[in-house]
Amino acid sequence: MRLTLSTLVLMFLLAAVGQAWAAGGAEIFETLKCGMCHKPDKKAAAVSLQEIAGTYSDRDKLVKFFKGEIKPLIESEKWGMMRGQLEKKIKPLPDEDKEALADYILSFK
Fold first, then answer.
1. What domains appear along the chain, each with residue ranges and CATH number?
2. 28 within 8 A of 104, measured Cβ to Cβ
3. 53-65 CB burial, b ≥16 within 10 A, e <16
4. Among 57, 66, 11, 2, CA closest to 34
5. Stated pTM of the model
6. pLDDT tens-digit profile of 57-83?
7. Cα–Cα distance between 95 and 1 in angstroms, integer?
8. What is the number of other CB atoms lying within 10 angstroms of the CB of residue 17?
């Protein structure tokens, strides 16, 4: 009984931490006004969050993209505009914020 209860408590805590990161990522996404171009489930001015989440299958790849360590995995005619936003708004963020933003975007899988 104790082991089961401990396991449930641990699972609850891990879920809460994950939700806190996603909430932080949502706040960053909103503050940076990423939603002006990136919509959850449809292509608007830029690719959708679902497409990004499907292409960047894990957080490490997306964070590396945010850092400018890998090239974009999605072909887009809007890359020139996005590159400027990446350099100006996302690259300067602390790694923890990049990770939270990646977690938020990947929640749209």
1. 2-106 (1.10.760.10)
2. yes
3. beebeebebbbeb
4. 66
5. 0.76
6. 899 999 999 999 999 999 888 888 889
7. 40
8. 10
